[in-house]
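Researcher: I'd like a structural prediction for the single chain below. Treat it as a standalone chain; there are no partners to consider.
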Amino acid sequence: MYSIFKANLKTIFKKFERLNPEVEGTAIGLYLVYNIITSSGGSISLNSEVGSGSHFVITIIDALKASDQKSK
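Model: Treating it as a single chain, here is the predicted structure.
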């Protein structure tokens, strides 16, 4: 189970931000996810409690449905 300290919650979606240098990776994954979701009109948030784990909430909109409602 992985947890993220509150001090790191604001930086978790930044490009090349690595919280654990011992873990392999490029530190670009969450940055890309954040930008894809937000550029599509959605949102992503993270709740984490040390010792209990982390919970990501992703909200996306139905672009076709939103477009149909605007045209009415």
